[in-house]
Protein: SDR family oxidoreductase
Amino acid sequence: MKKLAVITGASSGIGEAIARQLSALGHPLLLLARRVERLEALNLPNTLCKKVDVTDKAAFDAAIAEAEAQYGDVDLLVNNAGMMLLGDVATQNVAEWQTMFNVNVVGLLNGMQAVLEPMKARNGGTIINISSVAGRKTFPNHAAYCGTKFAVHAISENVREEVADANVRVITIAPGAVETELLSHTTSDEIKAGYDSWKDEMGGVLAPDDIASAVCYAYSFPQNVCVREIVMTATRQQP
Structure:
């Protein structure tokens, strides 16, 4: 059996696609999401499914400990869980900002802390953080979301530098628009309609399997090779 991989936000979209591809490659999995029934419905072999909110550090740690007791040490963590609540800062509900920062930033830090010290002690392991093109440039109605994803980029690169001497890899993957449930979290119908129109103008967007393939590609290199960042969009996406 190959080494244990942990995926957050694995109940749909990118997380589900990553789970399917890593399982097909023979990895045992710990899948985390709030909709545990969706995880169980995937029916993947050698897989532990846990209902975990990534902002709950104790639950995150407990799930990892349970998975490691069954499948050995975590070799790969994919921090995929995320929220995209688009809005104009002048009028957006402030609770939406807090939700995004809690899930996209604090949740990611919770995951990294849960695995980093053991990885450093073993001199090996990989963390892949799913960010966004919105972590590299700004977009209308994306201010708070961009803030969370710029944070993901900064945290990932900072930690990568800190753990490189321990032979631990930290990789950032920054997709453009992807066909997932992410947009449905936004509460403004006007913003959602504009986003959908933008996707139509470019003739379609990335599929979750495209991102999953990038995860598997980056992870597949020998431990002494770190693909630090992958930025990927539909070819016709502008910007």
User: Anything to note?
Assistant: Residues 94-122 form the longest helix (29 residues). The helical segments are 13-24, 36-41, 57-71, 94-122, 143-163, 189-201, 208-220. The CA atoms of residues 10 and 19 lie 7 Å apart. The mean pLDDT is 96.
